[in-house]
Specification:
Blueprint lengths: L1 H67 L1 H6 L2 H8 L4 H18 L3 E6 L4 E4 L17 H7 L4 E6 L6 E11 L2 E11 L1 H6 L5 E6 L5 E4 L47 H9 L12 E7 L5 E6 L13 E11 L4 E8 L1 H120 L3 H29 L8 E3 H18 L3 E3 L8 E3 L2 H18 L7 E8 L3 E7 L7 H6 L15 H11 L3 E6 L5 E8 L8
Parallel strand pairs: 13-15
Antiparallel strand pairs: 1-2, 1-5, 3-4, 4-5, 6-7, 6-11, 8-9, 9-10, 10-11, 12-14, 15-16, 16-18, 17-18
Helix pairs in contact: 1-8, 3-4, 8-9, 8-10, 8-13, 10-11, 11-13
Bound molecules: adenosine-5'-diphosphate (ADP).
């Protein structure tokens, strides 16, 4: 019972197991491919980002290095010192202006200018232009303050007048160890931005507040990236507990790593007029993640600075790599798009899984074909076994039927022999009548010779007694020969028997039939030369056949006053035939068709066995018995037997 219950479940599992295996394999392959593709693509992006970062830093560094020492050089120039000593001297101003313009041009700087100790511009390379710095107060600029403190200053800011972003180098001008002014050289860094050509990787340069002031993506300029621990700026809150959501975005920091500028920070930066009135919004970062490999991954909405609607942007995934620029308090970062990573993973997965599915389909197809073949073979085997079983059963049935048939044949054979015997006994009646008839004459004669003999003895004529006795002996012999057929008849014959001489046959038949022939006043004509002809057969059986044919002929002519029967003889080297022709009504078509069948009779007291038994007797002697109508009327029965002629009588 338990087995029956568990069968369908196990069958279902077995049936489904290839699918489960396929899915498991697919999941495993997808996992492996994903990981490999991720690693490889990430490695490529990382390398590319690293190379871009290095390239950009070198180029930026080069640009800055070219101008770094220029203010110091200018601070030692007499024209400028003279100007600072005589700030109101028109001649000195002009000389300084021209000098600055020349040096500026030669060095490829954007602007060069000289500030007094109050921060007012006294001379500038752009003195002749409409946005000339002359007269402008830059005392608020940190680079001025740094120089006034006696050191070299450096600063990045949006030009107060020009609105052009630039890097400012400053240096104090000394006279007798006293600062009498500041020389400033401004370098435009926008060229590097414009020359950038990698569409998948963007360059960001941030100040110590995390404000992006150079970006290859225009809409990221003057936005903040949030806290990057390596910058180590004091104003950035480094304790996680001190986060405040950005009030303008209403968004909390995406992770403890993110930290936005506070209101205070923004107020401070705005007051410094460093980036004009830029609102300093943070980039719309929705996720920050540091991977096991140490990669910093960002997911951010690529929205323009002015758009506060998140829905209008598209989230992009990036790898962030950054390096501090030595001596410049700037951080240069590459924001590498992870699209190639996604594409690479997608391609690898698509290719790998397609290949896998094709392979799996092929394997499934061939295994299904193999299974079907096996099933087909099993079915064939089953059919074969079923057929064998049927053949066995059928053979057994046939064997049984055959045995039954054999038994029936045996029974039939016995019945046939019994019938022949019965019919023979019927003929025996006729025979005894014939014998009775035949014996009455010799008996009368014997009686006569015996009486005569006794009389002759009384008269003493003994010589005549001997003659009479001889007659009696002869008559006894004759009687014995008459009784011979009776002995033959009582014997039951089997097989072809001995050869029979037709003359002997005739005599036997005539003995049997004599009474009947005489009674009907009938005559039989026999052919000549019968004594020379021998046929295969038994005397008794052939007598039975001929007696039957002659009896039937006599019965057919029962109404005739002088019935005639003609027996004719024919022979070939192998065969001998005797034809019995009567002059009765002949055989009807029905009789012709059925005359040899048992129990076919047209006679009221007939048994219908005579001809059928005769037919079998002749058949058992390897002969033939045929019925026909004679052309001149009457029935014609032809008995054909194997010839034994020429054979001498034994
Ligand atoms: P039965 O004599 O008992 O009828 P048989 O087998 O000897 O049986 O004969 C079968 C039938 O064949 C007869 O009833 C008869 O109709 C037909 N028949 C046989 N011999 C002759 C004949 N010489 N002439 C006409 N009909 C015959």
């Amino acid at each position: 019972m338990k087995r029956t219950d568990s069968f369908p479940a196990s069958y279902a599992i077995r049936k489904r197991s290839p699918l489960i295996l396929l899915l498991l394999g697919m999941a495993l392959l997808a996992f492996t491919l994903y990981n490999t593709a991720y690693m490889q693509a990430m490695e490529r992006i990382r390398e590319q980002a690293d190379a871009n970062l290095s390239r950009y830093i070198v180029s930026l560094q080069h640009q800055l290095d070219r101008h770094r020492d220029l203010p110091r050089l200018l601070a030692s120039q007499q024209q400028l010192i003279h100007l600072l000593e005589n700030p109101g001297n028109v001649q000195s101003i002009e000389t300084a202006n021209r000098y600055l313009a020349r040096v500026n041009d030669t060095m490829g700087a954007t602007d060069s200018y000289v500030l007094g100790t109050d921060g007012i511009t006294l001379a500038a390379s752009n003195w002749g232009q409409h946005h000339s710095f002359i007269g402008n107060d830059y005392s608020f600029r940190p680079y001025f303050q740094q120089a006034m403190e006696g050191g070299a200053g450096r600063y990045f800011a949006l030009g107060n007048t020009s609105r052009v972003r630039g890097y400012f180098f400053s240096y104090p001008v000394f006279r007798s160890a006293q600062i009498i002014g500041v020389v400033v050289v401004k370098v435009d860094l926008e060229d590097i931005e414009e020359d950038w050509s990698d569409p998948l990787q963007d360059i960001l340069v941030m100040d110590e507040d995390g404000v992006i002031f150079i970006s290859t993506r225009t809409n990221w300029r003057f936005r903040t990236l949030g806290y990057l621990p390596e910058i180590g700026r004091s104003t950035l809150r480094q304790s996680y507990g001190n986060h405040e959501p950005n009030p303008r975005q209403g968004l909390p920091p995406a992770s403890p790593l993110a930290s936005w500028l506070t209101e205070m920070d923004i107020a401070r930066i705005t007051a410094s007029r460093r980036y004009g009135q830029a609102p300093l919004l943070p980039l719309d970062i929705i996720r920050r993640e540091v991977t096991e490999q140490g990669d910093l991954l960002l997911t951010l909405f690529d929205t323009p600075a002015t758009t506060s609607d998140r829905q209008s942007g598209r989230a992009g995934h990036y790898l962030l790599q950054s390096r501090l620029l030595p001596n410049a308090s700037m951080r240069v970062a590459v924001l590498a798009s992870l699209r190639p990573l996604q594409i690479s993973i997608f391609k690898t997965l698509a290719l790998g899984l397609t290949f896998y599915l094709i392979l799996a389909a092929l394997i499934l197809f061939f295994s299904a074909r193999h299974r079907m073949k096996q099933q087909h073979q099993a079915e064939l085997q089953q059919a074969h076994e079923a057929l064998e079983l049927r053949v066995k059963l059928r053979t057994r049935e046939l064997t049984d039927a055959n045995q039954r048939l054999q038994q029936e044949i045996e029974q039939h054979h016995q019945t046939q022999n019994q019938l022949i015997q019965t019919a023979k006994l019927a003929v025996l009646g006729q025979l005894s009548a014939g014998i009775n008839h035949e014996l009455s004459q010799p008996l009368t004669a014997i009686r006569h010779f015996a009486d005569n003999g006794r009389k002759l003895l009384t008269r003493g004529r003994t010589e005549r007694v001997g003659t009479n006795l001889e007659e009696i002996a002869g008559l006894a012999d004759r009687m014995a020969s008459i009784l011979q057929p009776l002995r033959e008849f009582t014997r039951q014959h089997q097989g072809p028997g001995q050869g029979v001489n037709l003359q002997h046959l005739r005599q036997g038949v005539m003995v049997i039939m004599s009474g009947q022939l005489e009674q009907q006043r009938a005559s039989i004509t026999w052919p000549e030369g019968l004594e020379k002809i021998w046929v295969a057969g038994g005397m008794g059986r052939l007598e039975q056949v001929l007696v039957n044919l002659i009896s039937n002929a006599l019965q057919a002519m029962a109404e005739q006053p002088n019935p005639r029967i003609e027996i004719t003889l024919g022979s070939s080297p192998q065969w001998v035939w005797l034809s019995v022709h009567d002059h009765g009504p002949g055989l009807s078509p029905d009789a012709l068709a059925h005359v040899f069948e048992p129990f076919y009779t047209t006679k009221p007291t007939g048994m219908g066995l005579g001809l059928s038994i005769s037919h079998r007797i002749v058949h058992s002697l390897n002969g033939r018995l045929e019925a026909a109508n004679h052309p001149q009327g009457g029935a014609l029965f032809t008995l054909t037997l194997p010839s034994l002629s020429p054979r001498e009588p034994s």
